[in-house]
Write a structure and sequence with these properties.
With 270 residues, the protein is α+β, with helices and mostly antiparallel strands. The chain has 8 helices and 7 strands, in the order αβααββαααβαββαβ. Strands 1, 2, 3, 4, 5, 6 and 7 form a 7-stranded antiparallel β-sheet that branches. The chain starts with a helix and ends in a 20-residue tail after the last strand.
């Protein structure tokens, strides 16, 4: 358990006594929240091999001479988003790639390249924002991946979320917290990002930072954006968190704290 997780565990203990936090506490919430550690890897389970058939695409070839403009458009779109097909559990390939990319970017650029991500489920509880992990982005224009037809640009934090939107939401509602985001609550899920970069979970719990609503779609991404330049580190629940839930905070409709800032008693020693 890292130092920040120890701080959060202490903080939750203080909250039970002081009740001054806007942190949403259940009757017996676990305090062992953690994200996937950077040294752990997510491995995809390979599906059974399918027989190969020689199929020709309708309306022309698969590339080069004779390829349609739709083919080029699809190829461009594929470079902008992490494709998701069906249920995305913690061992599937897109999530593994996103997580390993995050690790590489985090190691290269540190926490300044990272932002905390939250999901709001209005049909379940409009005031609760669930921590679902972090995104990271490449910060060096000389190291950016790019397509052959566009000039690469440094992605924004919102680009990092939009391009991985479906992956994050599928993981959150199916794997992380289906009790609050899946089934009848799955419509209208929202993604929110910490207004400041870095590991800001503690600041969020202490009501020191706001969240920004991430809106937009594939069309919002510039021609120079490439999804290989961003990554996602999923939150993983352990122990009681699986049933009781992990880190979540309370914010208003604009993502602002609803209660004042509070501090941890600095006299308490670990």
């Amino acid at each position: 358990m890292t130092q920040i997780h120890l701080f959060i565990a202490l903080l939750l203990s203080c909250c039970l006594l002081q009740k001054t936090s806007s942190f949403s506490l259940g009757p017996t919430i676990s305090t062992s929240r953690r994200t996937r550690s950077s040294d752990s890897k997510l491995f995809a389970v390979k599906p059974p091999k399918k027989s190969k058939k020689n199929k020709k695409p309708a309306g022309g070839g698969g590339g080069g001479f004779g390829s349609s403009s739709a083919d080029a458009s699809n190829a461009n779109n594929n470079s902008k988003v992490r494709s998701v097909s069906g249920y995305q559990g913690s061992g599937t390939k897109p999530l593994r790639i996103a997580a390993n990319t995050f690790d590489a970017l985090r190691q290269e650029y540190g926490e300044d390249a990272c932002h905390d991500i939250y999901v709001r489920s209005p049909l379940n509880d409009a005031s609760t924002f669930w921590f679902v992990g972090k995104v990271a982005r490449c910060m060096d224009i000389t190291k950016l991946e790019s397509s052959s037809t566009t000039v690469a640009i440094i992605p924004t934090p919102h680009d990092a979320v939009i391009s991985q939107k479906r992956l994050i939401l599928e993981y959150a509602k199916r794997q992380l917290r289906p009790q609050n985001m899946g089934g009848p609550f799955s419509e209208g899920l929202e993604l929110w990002i910490a207004a400041s970069s870095g590991d800001r979970e503690m600041d969020a719990v202490q009501n020191k930072i706001s969240l920004d609503h991430v809106t937009g779609s594939l069309a919002s991404l510039s021609d120079g954006f490439h999804v290989a330049n961003v990554g996602y580190n999923p939150e993983i629940y352990v122990g009681d968190e699986v049933t009781k839930g992990g880190l979540r905070i309370v914010r208003d409709e604009e993502g602002k704290p609803v209660k004042p800032v509070f501090e941890i008693n600095e006299s308490v020693k670990f």
